[in-house]
Amino acid sequence: MPERDQAVMEQIQERLKNVQKIVSKDLKSEHTKCGGTINKINKLHDKLAKQKQEEGKLQISTQNQQKLMTLYGTAIEEAQAEEKVIRQALEKIYEIHAIRNERRLQVKSGGKEAIRRGALMKALHTWQLPLWMGNIGEKPPPLCGAIPAESNYVAPVRDMVAALQKSSEGDDNWILAEVISYTAATGKYEVDDIDEDQKGRFTLSRRRVIPLPKMRANPDTNPEALFKKDTIVMALYPQTTCFYKGIVKSLPVTPNDEYDILFEDSAYPEGYSPPLKVAQRYVIAIRDKKSKLKATKIQ
Q1: Mapping DSSP to helix (H, G, I), strand (E, B) and coil, where does residue 105 land?
Q2: Domain residue ranges in the chain
Q3: Which of 11, 78, 216, 224 is surrounded by the fewest CB atoms within 10 Å?
């Protein structure tokens, strides 16, 4: 095994050991403490419910009120501690994803090997965004789900973006690309087509580059960070590296779910494809709702 690959494996193994320790020891300990406090709360509530049934009314003594308040406060503190440990484990998992992706980019830039198309399609589907978990009442930040980037945002080098490429036939195509560089003086990006079979590199203005989401939105806690049903969007057509215009048929129900997208497709009598699954990472606001882009049937 090459020395660099060995170093990468060691970094991944180190973080996997950290995750195992966090989950098997730290998280287990915090979960046990939190569970014990919740059991005490439930037992006290059961006692009060039984008292109400016997006496026909609920009358909580000052002592029990104080006891409940203390238990509630402890439960909140313990839940926050448990949350902190979970975030630590997730951070290590995201670091592993970042290390693997960085190595992939190093291999690609070195020209040593190309990722086969099947492997690329699998990688695009399995690359999972971190789930944004804010505090109660905290609004999701830019690039979380459907929330766009701020107007002055510049996508970092090696980030994936949607890039508007002009083909030799004069058609405009939004492709999945990686940022190679950005020149502030000219306001232009240099990007690589993610599809190595195309081996394309382009220089594009900022208006021809759309940053992709950096975090998933949780439908349970932040539905406002998802595209609404029937919204016109651009989405990555499954098994391709191109974005096409479509309509949101249905939203993710859980954090791990995908959108159902109806792509514009003249091959179908209705003018749209059947619902196709697309991850939050690859669904973005359409730059121009009057765009003439169409999703031709992928053979």
Answers
A1: helix
A2: 3-113, 160-211, 223-285
A3: 224
Tell me if 160-211 shares its fold with 223-285. yes
CATH number for the domain formed by residue range(s) 223-285: 2.30.30.140
CATH topology of domain 160-211: SH3 type barrels. (2.30.30)
Residues contacting residue 289 through CB under 8 Å, at least 6 positions apart? 232
**What is the distance, to the nearest Å, from the Cα of residue 86 to the centroid of all Cα atoms in its chain?**
17
How far is residue 251's CA from residue 231's CA, in Å, rounded to a whole number?
A: 11
The model's pTM: 0.70
Per residue in 135-188, pLDDT (tens digit) is: 878 899 999 999 999 999 999 998 899 999 876 666 788 999 999 999 999 999
Q: CA 262, CA 230: separation in Å to the nearest integer?
A: 9
pLDDT of residue 41 exceeding 50, the answer is: yes
Would you put residue 231 in left (φ > 0), alpha (ψ -120 to 50) or beta?
beta
Query: What is the rounded distance in angstroms from the CA atom of residue 42 to the CA atom of residue 91?
Result: 33
Nearest to residue 130, comparing CAs of 50, 244, 213?
213
The amino acid that residue 56 corresponds to is G
Instruction: State the CB neighbour count (10 A cutoff) for residue 293.
Output: 19
Q: Report the SS3 class of residue 183.
A: strand
